[in-house]
Predict the structure.
Amino acid sequence: MKTKKKILFVCVENSCRSQMAEGFANHFSKGGFKAYSAGSGPSGKINETAIAVMQEAGIDISPQKSKGFEDLGDAKFDYVVSMGCQDICPFVPAKKHLEWRVDDPKGKNLVFFRSVRDQIAAQVLDLIHRELKSPDGGTPIKNLIK
């Protein structure tokens, strides 16, 4: 049996970007990744607009929780992806670190949220395709987002 690779997505509040990335990674990797998310200053809730735009994409992130690094326990990660928090987020040990510069959609309009969602989806799909050699890594994002 193949072991799932663990991936952690981090942003400051763990309410928008990292939550969307967690949802996409768990959905699109078909079990190849076990995705987590956390923030350096968690808001304690998932942003309602993030939930709505993810539901448009056919993914329900409403059961996910906004959490801090202390909530991760002693999990060991294969990948840690920073969603643009740079120096604000603490270093989390992993085999590979990635920095995705994704604008924070908090407080922005629905069009901006959708744009951020689609950017995250494309980056997650690219990562899955490169790291897991996913057979549908070439599927255009517009065909995956409802």
About this structure: Helices lie at 17-28, 48-56, 110-132, 141-144.
